[in-house]
Amino acid sequence: MSIMVPSKTPALITPGRQALDSALHQLGQAAEHLGLDDGLRTMLATPRRSLTVSVPVRREDGRLDVVQGFRVQHNVSRGPAKGGLRFHPSTDLHEVTALAMWMTWKCALAGIPYGGAKGGVAVDPAGLTTRELERVTRRYVSEILPLIGPEKDIPAPDVGTDEQTMAWIMDTYSVSAGYSVPGVVTGKPITLGGSLGRAGATSRGVQIAALSALGRSPEGVTVAVQGFGKVGALAAQYLADAGCKVVAVSDLTGAVYCAGGLDVSRLRTWAAETGGVRGYRHADALSHGDLFELDVDVLIPAALEGAITEANAPRIRARLIVEGANGPTTPEADEILAANGTVVVPDILANAGGVIVSYLEWVQNMQAYSWSSGEVEAKLHDLIENAFSEVKSLAAARGLTLRQAAHVIGVGRVAEAHQMRGLYP
Ligand code: NAD
Cys bridge to 235: 148, 203, 248, 255, which one at CB 3.0-4.6 A? Predict the structure, then answer.
């Protein structure tokens, strides 16, 4: 199988390249299991469209900076491309390609009619003023404008972006169209056509997946969460609300631990007011690395790719890992965890709540109609639970890990769509 990605030399193995290697490894395993031919494997390993753009940004002091931006549409065989937009200094084309590929399998697994996409801009949002951030966003959107649209490719928030970013994207696109186009992005503010339940949807999905995988009462179950951002903080909150004891969390500023259980709501307020969890007075400080080695029932990586590697996997004591982040576990770590009997609920299942409610938001936008939060939540529950039960059944029937089973289902559905559509010309 030939895959059109730059050759691998040791000096060039960036975190993004590692993420893409992981994604290709997972695809390879699923393709092998499904018996896909080489041509189809290559199709699935190769993004349909990749765009790299230069984004000039005028800084407050008058300087002109130019940053790189990317939009990758990995696959559109089952519907429009769908995927988040990341603002992070080290994002690159490899990382965005990996994230777009995972989106393809995630949408297929969840049974929603989308292909996979992802976007990225190599900036540190913390180093920009709000006006600079708005200028970067609008200019990036104008550079990728021909690619996006409600029928073509629909961005959403990811690391470093939020509902304000989505509002700017919707406005930039709508000004160009000459009328309001709410369906061009999801994760918008409610006032612009956002859906009730979208803000906490990814975390709600993580909670549903964690409780479902636990298979017992959440009362007293201990949890550690890496990453206290949009996904991690609310996942911690929802699990604490359900009766779990969240004993440790971390973010870029530090990690905190409280054996008796953190008051997650209070910690969220502290983090919002001070910019992070560091210095929270009602807990002890912990090192980032030690969080992974705690004797907890559930570990939730909810930061970035490559958090669990062959270096720390042997010391992980949690019996259950629920991946809030995309690609947090490398294939080498996966093997170690499987050998140790640790169950991993994979990203494309565990964090699918975000894209599921994004889909519901888009459906509401396309119909100019809105559902109650109860209706949204019920549909989210159905879709995640259906996907989980399909994955569990296949894993049990074929002796696969949950990740392998999830990929066999996701990749299988996309492969089938390709086969049914045929090749043009
Ligand atoms: P975010 O920017 O809101 O939060 C990221 C958090 O991770 C921050 O608290 C940051 O400080 C922390 N972090 C970064 N590096 C860290 C490290 N080395 N150690 C500890 N903490 C670290 O981003 P988010 O939207 O919460 O996304 C988190 C993950 O979830 C990403 O992998 C993203 O792709 C995935 N995801 C997000 C959504 C969504 O709806 N936002 C949906 C599906 C998957």
Answer: 203
